[in-house]
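[READ THE FOLD]
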Amino acid sequence: MKNTFLGFYKIRELSELIDSNAVLLFGVPFERLKATLGGSKKAPKTIRKQSLEFSGVSLTFDVTKSKRNFFDLGDIHPINEREKLKAIWEKAEELNSEILVLGGDHSITYDTLSVAPWDEKTGLIWLDAHADLADEYPPGIFQSHGTVFTNLKNQRNLRADQLLLIGGHSYTQMSAEHEKIRNKEVNFIPIRKIHEEKSNSMELISNFLDNFDRIYMSIDLDVIDQAFVPTLATAEPFGLTPAVLQEILRVILPKTKYVDIVEARHYRNNRIVPNLVVGLIFYILEIWDLN
């Protein structure tokens, strides 16, 4: 790892971690078989480099004067280093620390959360243009970016009331996924409802959060309208604006112990997406710092 994310200390061995209430960041530059364009595996390196163009200081947050420490653990291979993923979760639990992950495609969420601690007071929220509830995607492939939450639900025996999808506004999902939503196998707040009934939508999110002590959250960047993330492989119209995304995160983050940001595909001469992710990370750190 040439660069750490701005304001984060480089960690080579987990034994170096002794600070409680820290934020542990790592990258998972990995893609499984995709039915869409690749490129998101390059994101962790680019996002770290892009962060160096920021100061880490705003009118409301200064990464250098935070109440907590920030550590960059480098990049991890989700299959070859599965034991290390488990060890990171154990260290985060021991030190009461949050985890922030840079994908990679959305399949990495399964890898990171399949080894996480779960109980009945743990809830899972994902923000996504797509439900990612397929049983197989593409046909015959049972572990991919399109099957993440079906796999997690089955592997962890998660109840429907532990699962909340925010988004699902695309027209490229398969009918089987829509059937699962109609059958209320997960809680669902569509983008249209957020646009038309934002106050009620925020209340629904708050009501979901009230049931849990700990939240894991996955942010697929295609939940944001394609105008703001034009280089994504699955950019979709009618998504969230970054400002509304901030409003939603402000509600969710205080209970969140894990966040991943996935599918940050970009072009070499178009850094809109990495730039947005860096700003999003600083916003996440700010909200965590206040709680």
